[in-house]
Request: fold
Amino acid sequence: MVTYQPSARTRVTRLPKRAVYDAAQVHAILDEGFLCHIGFTVDEQPYVIPTGYVRASEKLYIHGSAASRMLRTLDQGIQVCVTVTLVDGFVLARSSFHHSVNYRSVVVLGTARLVLDREEKIDALRRFTNHIVPDRWDEARQPTDPELKATSVLVLPMEEVSAKVRTGPPIDDEEDYDIPIWAGVVPIHMRAGEPIPDDRLSPAADGFDIKRLTRFS
Amino acid sequence: MVTYQPSARTRVTRLPKRAVYDAAQVHAILDEGFLCHIGFTVDEQPYVIPTGYVRASEKLYIHGSAASRMLRTLDQGIQVCVTVTLVDGFVLARSSFHHSVNYRSVVVLGTARLVLDREEKIDALRRFTNHIVPDRWDEARQPTDPELKATSVLVLPMEEVSAKVRTGPPIDDEEDYDIPIWAGVVPIHMRAGEPIPDDRLSPAADGFDIKRLTRFS
Reply:
């Protein structure tokens, strides 16, 4: 797949020049993020819940345990919107109106279903863990059957997908460029700090190198 | 107000020990964040859109321009869920099952309405700007009437509110503490990088000190 076809629901209507349907760019955004906000509707009330996710080819696996309200209604799958947003910088313009944020976001609409197959669930959990800390899954104790049962994983096919991206400097009105205030972009990054070892760390354990968190170091 | 009363819809049902209804803690989370995800439902499809917000007393002001689909349906207000999530760290346990994330999130349910009053709208825009860069509003060129008309601001009363917080080390099963792998918390922070001045910066402009972004420096 090279591009996603915008549907009436995923076509970007506001600031359409920021729209991205290119699959490689969408994948890159999803692979850089780790936190999504999943929206669903119960009794006409929308709910938006933060949770972890990982992409596998053209599927999103979503850590479902956070969404207990949703899961009660999930027998036949549930209509969801999964949104991932990366903030790249604050855009300071000469006019208050043109202040903005550089960001990359992806929206996936569709029907999420519980992953029932044991091997697919284990594979998704392995991907969640290694998506944050590469190779962590093989270091840690593997899940028992009761732990697997206590964990819910949702799968959402990436069929209705769009992305929106703002990059670059402020775009001011021509007559404002002479205003003598600082204007430009202040980049924003998520960074890992000094690891805090557990009080009960095994004396045989090695330290933790934050360089393993490649996106955050 | 000291605490929010949980409604049937905001009572935290999964891991209720993580629930927070204390207004001071909720305010602190909202005042540290700047990006929300707003959920609304159109034709039974939920949508989740990232946008800016700022708290003013017991109201949330939400930058509405991002949500053009929503605004078309907004005549009488619209049922929304506004969620703000701060990620504080990755929690590495001995077992894959007990891996977690330290986070603070707030969920506000209710009916959002367009801000129609001119002074209230200007006040909200001033708050948006100064919430990211203190004192920036007074430095920048103020909005014209057409710019004000082109900007949508929503207001949502903070009546149905809950927060969820995870802090601290991994909680492993007793028999796993001897496993000789590193366990603990890797803190995660949003940090400002070196400002990138606009190519057309006025020669009379001062530099930009990222210490002004107190939460990100």
